Amino acid sequence: MGQGNRVRHQRIRFDGTATIADAEQLRTALVHGIGPGKAYGCGLLSIAPATDAA
């Protein structure tokens, strides 16, 4: 198989908390995904409300 049409992308995972400054931009990112790798299952966002770890 030739390698002239290879697609390369990198993946990384971040875990943590965020403070949302612009709810509309977050909504757009959730609907459309982020980054060029989203066609390959990357760029997906999973979010949940923060909970207190008491």
Topology record:
Blueprint: H1 23-32
How would you explain this protein's 3D organization?
The protein has 54 residues and is mainly α. The protein has a domain at 19-48. The chain contains 1 helix and no strands. The protein is elongated and about 50 Å long. The mean pLDDT is 78.
The pLDDT mean sits at: 78
Low-confidence stretches: none
Round the Cα radius of gyration to an integer and report it. Answer: 16 Å
What pattern of helices and strands is seen along the backbone? H
Strand runs, count: 0
Helical content class: 10-25%
The DSSP helix count reads 1
Given the helix and strand composition, which structural class is it?
A: mainly alpha
Q: Could you tell me the strand content as a percent range? A: under 5%
So what's the overall shape?
elongated
What composes the largest sheet?
A: none
End-to-end Cα distance: 56 Å
Tags for this model:
about 55 residues, mainly alpha, elongated
Overview in brief:
The chain is mainly α and 54 residues long.
